[in-house]
Specification:
This protein has 317 residues and is an alpha/beta fold. It folds into 2 domains: 257 residues, Alpha-Beta Barrel (TIM Barrel), CATH 3.20.20.70; 54 residues, no CATH class. It has 15 helices and 10 strands. Helix 4 links the parallel strand 5 and strand 6. Helix 6 packs parallel to helix 8 and helix 13 runs antiparallel to helix 14. The structure holds flavin mononucleotide.
Length: 317
C-alpha cells in the first residue's frame, strides 16, 4: 500500500495511542510486522506555546521505523504554527518525522469542550480550511514528509452518525490529503461497542485516496472480512497491539498473532526495556508496558494450561 509517497510493506499500521505508542514500543511492533507507526496524539497548542513536555512526546529517535506525528488542532492557524515549530526545531530526530496525521476522533471531554476533535466533524467549512492548510504545507515543508492525512470517527454522537457527517469529509480528504482513517464508532461509543464497518464501506465508495479502517481488527480473519465487506485499503490496529505486538505477524498470515512461547515474550520485553532505557522513555510508558508484558505472560500460561489440561509449570517439569 502507498500513502502519499510512502511505500508500506503491508496494510497493517500501528495506531497512535496515548501512553502506549512510545518509540521503543513502536520498534517492537515494527520488528513484528507493523508497516507504519504513529506517536501518541500531540496537542498543537502545546507546541505553539513551546511547552517542553509536549515536545518531549515527539520521540522519533529511530530513523528505521516509519513514524508519523499525530496532532490535535483547533484551527488552521494553530496547525500551521505548530508545524512551523516542528520544522524550525533544532532537534535532529524531528528529521525522522515521515507523516502527519490530524486527530478528529479523541472523545475526551476536555477536547470536545474546546471545540476540537470530533466536535469539528460536522463543521465542514472549518475542516476544509484545516485539511487544505495541511495539504499546502506538505508541498513546501523542508521535513521529509511522505504523507499527510486525517483520522476521524463517524460523528460526535449517534445523531451525527445517522446524519452521516463523515461522508462529506471523504470528499474533502480526496481533495487535500493523502489518506483517511475511519474509526468506525461515534465519539460517545466505548471500545466495547461494535464498530459500524458498513460506514467504512460507504466511505470507500467515495474515496479516491487510500482508506484505512479501524475498530476491532485483530486477526487475519478480521482483516479478510474488513477487506471483503468494505474494500478498505489498510487497517489501523490499537488494542490488538497492546495485547500482543505479534498481532501484525498474524494479520500478515505469517504465523500466530499471539506469542508462541514464554521466551518470545521475554525477548520482546527485554528489547522494549533496553530501547526505552536508551531513549530515556518516560516512566508512564515503562509501567504500562511492564504490566502489559506481565499480562501477556499470564494469558500465555492460561492458554498453555487450557491446551494441555495441565498447569504450564508442571507440564514443563
Ligand atoms: C490506550 C489507548 C490510547 C489511545 N490514544 C489515542 C491517540 O493518542 N490518538 C488517537 O487517534 N487514538 C487513540 N486511541 C484510539 C485508537 O487509536 C483506536 O482508534 C481505537 O482504539 C480503536 O481501535 P482498536 O479497536 O484496534 O483498539 C487510543 C486507544 C487506546 C486503547
Amino acid at each position: 500500500m502507498k500513502l502519499g509517497s510512502l511505500e508500506l510493506s503491508s496494510p497493517f499500521i500501528l495506531a497512535p495511542m496515548e501512553s502506549v505508542s512510545d518509540c521503543a514500543y513502536r520498534r517492537v511492533c515494527w520488528d513484528r510486522g507493523a508497516s507504519l507507526t504513529w506517536t501518541e496524539m500531540i496537542r498543537a497548542r502545546g507546541l505553539t506555546r513551546n511547552n517542553k513536555s509536549t515536545f518531549d512526546l515527539i520521540d522519533t529517535f529511530d530513523p528505521e521505523v516509519l513514524t508519523g506525528v499525530q496532532l490535535m488542532v483547533t484551527n488552521e492557524k494553530e496547525l500551521i504554527e505548530a508545524l512551523g515549530k516542528l520544522e524550525g526545531s533544532t532537534q535532529a530526530h524531528f528529521k525522522n518525522i515521515r507523516a502527519i496525521d490530524l486527530n478528529f476522533g479523541c472523545p475526551s471531554p476536555e477536547i470536545i469542550r474546546i471545540g476540537a476533535g470530533p466536535a469539528l466533524l460536522k463543521r465542514k467549512g472549518k475542516l476544509e480550511t484545516i485539511f487544505r492548510a495541511l495539504g499546502e504545507w506538505k508541498k513546501s515543508t523542508t521535513l521529509p514528509i511522505g504523507a499527510v492525512g486525517v483520522k476521524i470517527r463517524l460523528g460526535l454522537n449517534r445523531v451525527e452518525q445517522e446524519q452521516k457527517v463523515y461522508l462529506p469529509l471523504v470528499e474533502l480528504a480526496n481533495e487535500h490529503v493523502d489518506y483517511l482513517v475511519i474509526h468506525a464508532r461515534h465519539a460517545r461509543q466505548g471500545s466495547s461497542e461494535k464498530p459500524t464497518w458498513s460506514a467504512i464501506a460507504e466511505a470507500k465508495q467515495r474515496a479516491r485516496i487510500p482508506l484505512i479502517g479501524n475498530g476491532d481488527i485483530v486477526t487475519r480473519e478480521d482483516w479478510e472480512r474488513l477487506s471483503r465487506e468494505t474494500g478498505a485499503d489498510g487497517a489501523l490496529i490499537a488494542r490488538g497491539a497492546i495485547r500482543s505486538p505479534w498481532v501484525f505477524r498474524g494479520l500478515k498470515g505469517l504465523g500466530s498473532g499471539t506469542p508462541t512461547s514464554m521466551e518470545e515474550i521475554d525477548a520482546a520485553e527485554t528489547q522494549y526495556l533496553s530501547l526505552a532505557t536508551q531513549y530515556a522513555t518516560k516512566p508512564k510508558f515503562l509501567e504500562w508496558h511492564r504490566e502489559g508484558f506481565n499480562r501477556m505472560r499470564a494469558r500465555f500460561k492460561g492458554e498453555a494450561e487450557k491446551d494441555s489440561g495441565v498447569p504450564a509449570n508442571e507440564h514443563m517439569s
